[in-house]
Write a structure and sequence with these properties.
The chain is mainly alpha-helical. The chain contains 7 helices and no strands. It comes from Stutzerimonas tarimensis.
Length: 142
């Protein structure tokens, strides 16, 4: 009876902790797009996250998933089966959100500069509209 309870608990832990949600296909493509343009930010190294996943809870802690890190710590060495993937995926998610924030900030800075040029009379409305389209094209993903 004790063995069945232990197996059930371990199965539940595997199901719960192995649910690292990485990027969806659209987000992966978007991140690749920004990487190709040199606009991506890498806060976390996915390879490091995967390597740290071999340590008790290391991949999850590296990926800022502290609750999962504690669970993975408790279920080590079994957690070696899923924590490297969790560490890798969490690193990619962190990098994606950092990149999105960075690109949004760059776009907003360019738009603010355009607004200032329009306000001071350096640009007329036609020039402003053309420059705004260039800024939108520079930061658009499609």
């Amino acid at each position: 009876m004790k063995a069945h309870g232990l197996i059930a608990a371990m199965g539940l832990a595997v199901l719960c902790t192995g649910c690292a949600s990485g990027l969806n296909s659209h987000q992966k493509a978007e991140l690749k797009h920004y990487e190709s343009r040199g606009q991506a930010i890498q806060e976390k190294n996915p390879g490091t996250g995967a390597a740290l996943g071999l340590l008790p809870g290391g991949g999850s802690f590296y990926g800022r998933e502290y609750g999962l890190g504690v669970v993975n710590l408790l279920f080590w060495p079994l957690s070696v089966l899923w924590d490297p993937i969790s560490g890798h995926d969490a690193s990619e998610v962190i990098n994606y959100h950092a990149t999105k924030s960075h690109v949004d900030r760059l776009r907003q800075n360019d738009l603010d500069a355009l607004d200032e040029s329009l306000r001071t009379g350096e640009l007329d409305l036609t020039q402003y509209t053309l420059e705004k389209r260039k800024v939108d094209q520079k930061y658009r993903y499609n």
